[in-house]
Design goal:
The chain contains twelve helices and 15 strands. It is an alpha+beta fold and 352 residues long. Residues 1-8 have low confidence and may be disordered. It folds into two domains: 13-162, Beta-Lactamase (2-Layer Sandwich), CATH 3.30.450.40; 168-344, Reverse transcriptase/Diguanylate cyclase domain (Alpha-Beta Plaits). The chain has a six-stranded antiparallel beta sheet. Strands 10-11-9-14-15 form a five-stranded mixed beta sheet, with helices on both faces. α6 (168-176) packs across α8 and α10 crosses α11. The N and C termini lie far apart (65 Å). The chain is globular. β10 (258-263) and β11 (266-272) form a beta hairpin.
Length: 352
Amino acid sequence: MPQNARRSDTITEQQRLAAIERLAVTYTPAEECFDRVTRLAARIFATPIATLSVVGDQRVWFKSRVGTVISELPRTDTFSNWVMDHDGALLIPDALADPIFARGAMVINAPYARFYAGIAIRSPNGAKVGSLSVMDTEPRHHSAIDIGFLRDLAAITEDEFHRRQLTASQKSMITELGEAQRRAMMDDLTSVWNRSGLDSILEREFAQASASEQPISVAMLDIDHFKKINDIYGHDAGDLALAEVARRLRAAARPVDSVTRYGGEEFAVVLPDCDEQSAQAVGDRLRACIAATPVTVGNSTYVDITASVGVATAKPNTVISLLLTRADGALYDAKRNGRDCVFAAPATIGCG
């Protein structure tokens, strides 16, 4: 039973939801600045699960997550809902032994959380907008966690909300589109834009490139022999691998780049203000980051993963579909020439 659970904020629920809307973080792609915090939290507290959640009116959106592929849950099914009504950190030594949390969605279903520690994340006006949490699949005693570290990580997260680096195109997508529209453009599994999101990003980035007369590139990536992962380890392992590849792409991409899931095991990364030489370098960095270390797809299961990459660059006024076609052709060349490599489409002068 959580102790000292009470509402201390004078901020109304309407003001809290308005603060979330101003931050524009729900149903938006995962961002490396937040992924870095959840990775640190999982390492510091030696927990298999860490999340950064945004608590909406009816749903909780996981802006960043480690150790789970859950993207959202009904608000009443989450620990984060209780953090909104709790002063300080919320500690639950064993959720299964607590009548309030024993039937929670994250307790009786994957990731089967037993221990929980979470602290509120606040907006600039002091409203609680979500929580930073760590979870373990085994019970823990209260003394097993240093709340000071959790507070520090929460403060870092709040600072990151004010330092987010988004391109003008990404900002316009997030602010101009409603939550329902953004939700339709998100890939739940990987927390990146889906194919519809890619189309919208490309349209906006092409407009920016034409106005500034700067080149724009695309990197197309395909996970090598992905079917074997599903066949050998199962589709759950395949899902974990896809989510991890997406995370590595976000980490390796430049802050202005947009990572998207093109379909299946294929990703596309939009590279604004990027010429042929730079696109080749970014493509190789993406490839190297995927292959750097084995991907964890179970408690003791590690899988080596590589990807083939094709890059293409467009001059101003090039047809968008042509850029994707050329990048896809370069990807085919990379796969045909041994995989785990980068091929660039031949330079063109562009066409209207």
